[in-house]
Specification:
By secondary structure, the protein is of the alpha+beta class. It has five helices and four strands.
Amino acid sequence: MSEPVVLDPVDLHILGLLQNDARTTYRDLAARVGVAPSTCLDRVARLRRSGVILGHRLQLDAAKLGRGLQALLAVQVRPHRRELVGPFVDRVRALPEARTVFHLTGPDDYLVHVAVADAADLQRLVLDEFTSRREVARVETRLIFQQWECGPLLPPGATPRVESP
């Protein structure tokens, strides 16, 4: 487990703003945080080097891409051994329907977030890509009706800054 990075209020403000819009220019970011653009650039570079900022992602509407049904698949693998973890995760990550894979404790070994076209496509995915695998003992499917994004991820005890429109 990696050590937490010490962040000051300016760093936390930068992180909160970038999580809401990663395309914010350094000039706009600096103005909103109250530092010089060069200072802002240096701080973001330091946050990247320290591993706090891992990258930037484009968020897409799955329904507009023909994947209007999303589900969580709780997968139990037997035997649950180290030599099966890597190949299983690699196989699931290679599926175009897979959005996120979690390795868990408890009765289920994995939770897989998938986006598919419809119920028939979900059934095909579960039967052809999961239950047909020798190591998969059980799959439970839960449909996602709606999803909400939450606030920015900050260290424990830090409070996000709320800006007036």
